[in-house]
Amino acid sequence: MVLLEHLQVVKQKDGTERLDNNGIGTHGSASVTSIVNGTSHGCHRLYNQLAVRLGDFLLHHRDHTVKGEQPVGYRRVIWHNDQAFKAEIDTRGFQYELTPPVNVMVTKGNILSKKKTPPRNSAPARP
């Protein structure tokens, strides 16, 4: 329901900065077991209601711009038992941009799942 992207500041050769999406974010999850079991590929997973509350809090307490609906033309036909199912998604969702972005410092934490190492290829390699 909510995705808060963690954008990485990349310094350009000309001295300017660019924000890159490194594939890591904070978001809700439709799978409660992924939260309870600590299953993730690097993202911070929250219960959906907590992700919505966090997003709402940020929008009420930080300056932001409204980017609006983000179009995506996803079309797929899935066949099962000789029956076609059409998936049509016209929008990626509604986007806001915090201005300025909120700095997030990720510190060392505890892995709660039985598997004590993150999955291989769980996050993009850092340059």
Describe the protein's architecture and organization.
This protein has one domain. 15% of the residues lie in helices and 46% in strands. It has helices spanning 32-36, 48-61; strands at residues 3-11, 17-29, 44-47, 64-80, 83-98. α1 links the parallel β2 and β3. The longest helix has 14 residues, at 48-61. The radius of gyration is 18 Å and the shape is globular. The mean pLDDT is 84.
In N-to-C order, the SSE pattern is EEHEHEE
Distance between termini? 31 Å
Put simply, the count of helices is 2
Helical residues, percent: 10-25%
> Main sheet?
3 strands, mixed
Strand elements, count: 5
Number of domains: 1
Ranges with pLDDT <50 over ≥5 residues? none
* Mean pLDDT, all residues: 84
Please give a quick description of this structure.
The chain is mainly β.
Set down the secondary structure blueprint:
Layout: E1 3-11, E2 17-29, H1 32-36, E3 44-47, H2 48-61, E4 64-80, E5 83-98
Parallel strand pairs: 2-3
Antiparallel strand pairs: 1-2, 4-5
